Structure formats: C-alpha cells, structure tokens
Model the fold of this input.
Amino acid sequence: MEPLALYLQHLRDVSGLPFYPWLFDFLLVLTFTLHILAVNLVLGGTLVLLWGRLFGGSYGRRLSRSLSRALPITLSWVIVLAVAPLLFIQVLYDPFWYFSNVISAWWALAFLALIALSFSLLYLYYLRGGYEGAGNPLWPLVAFISLLLVAVIIHALSLQALHPEKWPEWAAKGGTEYQSGGKLFALSLPRLLHFLLASMATTGIFLLFYARYFRPRADYDPNYLSWAARTGARLALIFSLLQAAVGIWWLLSLPAEFRFYTHPLFLLGAGFGLLFILYLLLVRHNPEPHAGRIGALLAATVFFMSYTREALRMKYLSRAGYSFASYPVHPSWSSTALFLLTFLMGLVILGYVGLVVYRAGRGQKEVGAHGWGRLSVLLSWLWIVVMVIIGLALSFKNGALP
Amino acid sequence: MYPIWVVPYLSSALVIGLIASFHILPSHLAVGAFWFNVYIEGKAYREGRPELLSFVRRYTLLILIFCFVFGSLSGVGIWYSATVSSPRGISALIHNYVWGWATEWVFFLIEVATIYAYYYTLGKVDERTHLRIGYLYALSAWISMIIITGILAFMLTPGRWLETGRFFDGFFNPTYWPQLGARTFFMFGIAGLYALLIAATLKEREVAREVSRLAGAWGLFGLILGTLFGYWWLKKLPPEARDFLFGGTLPYLSTLLKVAAISGGIVGLYFLLFGILFPRLNNVPLALLTLIILFLGILSGEGLREGVRRPYIINGFMYSHQVVGADLPAKGIASEVEVLNEKGYLSRLGYLPPELRTITEKNRLSVGRILVAHECANCHALSPKGLRSLPRLLKGLGLKTPEDLAGFLEGLDGYPYMPPFVGTEEERLAAGAYLSTLVKENP
Done:
C-alpha cells in the first residue's frame, strides 16, 4: 500500500461505522441541500436588503423591512441545519475533515466567531429600526462582509480536505515545527464563485414565494408584491445564467482524468439546472403563479448538485486510494432505529408547527389542527417514556443502577 | 495521528473547556426557561391577567437572542474546538454516538421552529395553540438534554460499553441518571436567575414583584434538588475519580468543588432574599453579579467533571493524548499502546517528511518537540507561564538531563492521573532531550 493510503487508513476511526455508509452519505446530501439553501438565502438576502434599504426606492425599502426580520431567523436555520451534515461528514470522511481543520485551527474557530458577529449585527439591525425601514445599513454591510469571509474559510477547509497529497507540504508550512494552525492553504475561485452566485438565485426564488404567500393579506400592496415577484424572477434568471457560466469554468478547471462532464449525477444536476433556467425564461413576465414548480426545480437542482459534489469528492479521494465503501461497519440497529423513528416523529411535529406559522402569517387567529397539535405533544411525551423504560431496564440489567 | 494544534499558554483542552462552560449558560437556559415561561403564560390566561405577558415576551426575546445566537454557536463551537484540539477524541465519540447526536438534532430543529413560532405568534394565534407551541419547545429542549447527557456521562463512566461496544450500554451508564437529574434541576436554577434579571427590568412593578417571587421559588427548588442529584453523582463516581477528588491526589479538584458549592449557596441566598422574601429589592446590577457568580460555579463544576476523568477522554478506553489504551474485541479494536511502543509513535505520523520520521543526532530536538507536542500539549503549556506549564513542573521535580527526563517519561503512568508516554526508548530520549532544553531555557 502507498504510504499516503496507509496513513489515511490509520487516521480512520478505530470504532468503524455504526451503520452502512450509503445511509450516512444520503443523509449528508439531503441535509446539506437544506443547509446550503438556507445559507444562500442569508447571503443573498443580506445583499438584497442592503440594496433595497439604500437604492431600492419605496418598494425596495419595504422589502428590506421584511428581510430584516427574515434574515436572523434564517441564520438560525442555517446553523441548526449545519449540524447534521457536519456530523455525517465526520462519520464518513473523518481523516480529511479533521486534518484540514487542525492545520487551519485558528481559522476554524474564527469561522464561528464571524458567524456570531454577523448574527448579532443582523439582530441589531432588525431591533434598532431595521423593521421600520430605518436601521443603520452599516450593520448589514459588516454582516455581509463577515459572511463572505465565513464562506471563504469553509470553502478553504473543504478544499484542503480534498488534497491529502498536499498535506505534508501544508503541515510543514503551518509554522515552526508543525504546530501553528494559523494559515489557510487552498482556494479555487470558480468553485467559490459557483457557491456564492447561487445565493442570489435562491434569494430570487424566495421573493417569488414571499409575494405569493402574502398576496391574500389586505395590508400588503398588490403592486409591491408583483414587483417583488418580478424582481425575484429576474434575479434568479440573471444569476443562474452567471452561475452556469462559472460552473463551466469550474468544470474545465477539474483534473482532466476525472472526465467529470460524463458523470451521470453531474448530468442530472446540470439537466435540472437547465430546466430551471428555461422555465424561468418562459414565465419571467408573470412568474408568481409558477412559484411551486420553479421552487421544485430549484430544490431538485440543488439536491443533485449536492450529490454531484459528493461524487467529485470521491473522485479526488480515490486518487489517494481512499473510499468510504471499505470502512469497517458494526451495525448498531437499535441506535439507527432510534434516529429514524425520531426523525419521522420530528417531521410530524415540525409539520404541525409549520402549519401554525403558515396560518398565523396569513392572519388567521384560530389556527385549528388541534388534533395534530395534541398528537405532537403526545409523541414527545411518548418518546420520553419509551427512553426512560429502556434506560431503566438496561441500567438495572447492567448494574448501573442502583 | 493528526497534526497537533498547540495553543500558547492555555493548552488546547482549555479552549474546549472555556467554550463548553460558556455553552452551559445559554443551553441550560434554553432547556429550563420555557417551563417557567409557559407556567407564567398559562397563569396569565387562567387568571385573565394579560399584563403578565409583558414578562413572557421579554423573557422569550432574551432566550431567542442569547440561546439561539450564542447558545447554538457555542454548541457548534464545542465540536469545532474539539475537532482542532482532540480530533481522535471527538471522532471516537462521533463514530459511536452519531445516531445519538443525529437524534438530538431532530429536537434542535423542533426547538428552532417552536421558539420563533412562539415569539412571533404571541397574541396572534389562539391561546391554546400558543401554549402548546411553548410546551412543544420545552419538551424538545429537555429531550435534547436527555440525549446529550448520555454522551457526556459515557465519557466518564462508559460502563458495560467497554465490553460490548453497544450504543445503549454506554448511553445508560452508571453516572447517567444522577447527571440527568442534576442538570434537569439546575436548569431551573439558571432559568430562575435569568427570570429574576428580566423581572428587574420590567416597568410594571406589580408584575415584576410577582414574577420575582415565583422565579425565586422555582430557582431555589431547582437548586436544592439539583444539589441532591449532584451528591448522588459524587457517590456514583468511580473509585479512582473519588480518590482524585477527596483523597488529595488532585487538590485543585476539591477547590473546584468548594467554589461550585459556595457559588450555589450565594445564588440560593439570592433566590431566597431577593426573590421569595423581598422581591422588591431584586435589581439588575445585583442579579447580574449573581449571574457572574453562577457562571463561576458552572465553570468550576464542569472543570471538576472533566478533571475526574483524567487521564482519559473516554474513561478506560482512550487516553487524553488520543491514544487508544484498551482492547474492545466487540468492535475489533486493539490497544494502540503496545504497537506504538514497539513500532514507534513516529510510525503513525504520516504527515511528516521521511527525514523527520527517523531520529538522527541532527533532528533529535525537532522530533522531540513534535513528540512532546503530540503527547503533552493537549493539557500542558510548553511555555514557563501558562496552564500546567511543563518547564515549571519539570523544574519543580528537579529533572534536567535528557536521560533523567526520558526515565521520568517511562514511568509517567505511575501517576494515576497521567497517561503513559507512548513510543520507543529512542523516542523517549528525543522527547527527553527536547524537554531538557525547556528546563534549561527557563531557569
């Protein structure tokens, strides 16, 4: 075995995987898709907020008010949706993720500090007049800049993880005697831009849904909502075209031996992307009634592109002789079932909360669905009771109690 | 082995400790606060007293910002700091408990959904629905504690897992129930103190007084029961941990226990005097001061919980320098100590260039430094000032020559709270040579 492949094998966790890798991989892609959509909305939304507040006229200013409330909430979702992919990436790709983070340790921590800063500033803006259309635009501006830095850091950490062949060189550069963690080592402009440009397209689609959702409310000017929908569709179209161009640039910058343009997942993702652009082109004059279908095309594109990203990662790592398929597996059926059942239960509860919010936002005070609500509370209690019974039984059996 | 991130003065382990201790404040507030919140909200509806809702709104905003900005980020921060400080440690935990964390994540999602729904729909949806959203939040937050406590307690007392390697055998371990009880009730204490702080900012004096009295009672109740469970936890500690704490082996641990107890006492007095008995005296500066004292107590308590686990990350399985020290046949795992003692620690440092993986006269000090960084720097500062400073400690022992220091390393695990220094004799000599420069350079 090559020394690098042997080293990577030794870096793998000795405990192996508690379930088959395909499930972690699927969950990684699924949760990353949700995470990146929320990331796009925060990044693009902050820019649209700034533009609306400063140059957008009365409609733009109105939009900046709505976004000032939506952005901190979305950033919360970004963070919580990051937890799952972060977890699964550590399960499948532990050698790569940890190595990359350790050699850039200070940056990995700065990443979090910068998110905390942006989060605080977005809240500050919202609470100090932003929701009245009068907040200090400096706060979202600084938030946007630090979010961009956050993007550069996570981009570099992800890219460093793909190049184990360069690790010895980077580790040596890190500082005296291999112990600093103060530098970032990798940057690929087309890859970074491809992620950044997607922010504006996603934000555009968000505006479409925004217009459609608030249409029945009497306190929203219909002309303003039509403007928001048209602006959204235009943003999505222009930036998707730009993104496609940058995507081609990225594709061309990949190692030729990958022949990545022939990869079925890439073709599927690109196909959905193309459909998305064509559909937007067709309905651009009156996009609002088509929001559902456009949103579905966007989701499919991002999902398959996220899978494509995994396929690309595997290409890179196979050069170093690594594949997660050979990771030893010790299936833990009980804990896998715990997660899957909890996940289903979570969907029931989230569905209920979503319905309450949806109806409340439309101005409905009696939201109904009490049966669903009672079921949600009951399921939560049931979860606790089942865990306590299993826990007590095992604790007595194993001598952990009394 | 991964490269090592050396943190000057503090040590990388303390970086995790600081972030983790900070996380306790928002996270336990996030868990405990809503039981109090929905109690006050329910009271407002039952007794037809909408003025109480002004407290609910303000209290929720505090939770929203403090817990969901700094709480969630510091939570991820524990992971990140562990990733860069102790990658093999966090990896071992994740590879055994990924489904536990993933399950907890489902409840995080519900928490985020419900906290925003609760805050933004207050007064906009019917009372029954609104209260239910609050209960759903409170339940989800508590469940997230039920889960994470299993993983935390596993690190100290893995129990039967050490034989079976099974998820639930490690999860429901000997210190699980007392720790869950202590955290559950202490969270009411933390929530009570925050409620007192918020109550002190309310303009409606009547509401402020009433909420202060209730918060004082909740807080005191939580503190007393939490202390009882804490006592049970102390009783359930493994013998060696009890010896570190009470037998004088590690005197700093008993100091931490005293600090935690005194802080708890002061906070309890605040609940009694400024909450229950004289709520009109409750004020922002004093409540804030008490909060700082509470934080000191938490810091000490968490430091104690980490300290009694020495010299392990996962007790009886992985040492604090990230070397697996025991067999776990159920998962096909063999202790790494023997292999590394035979083949050398350098055999696993594949990121080093070949010329640094064989010790020569010329590179001895460089390699020695790398080995010391790997095996010591997680917990020890390499500078004369700083946490558990190596030059200071070694000087105190009167060790100077490379040979003496190498001999000292060989018998390191004679100290019950220290991991063995792993590697060949040649590697110990290289490490000793480097350590002797530390002692000489810092007279």
Notes: Chain B has 16 helices and two strands. The first strand of chain B starts at residue 312 and ends at 314.
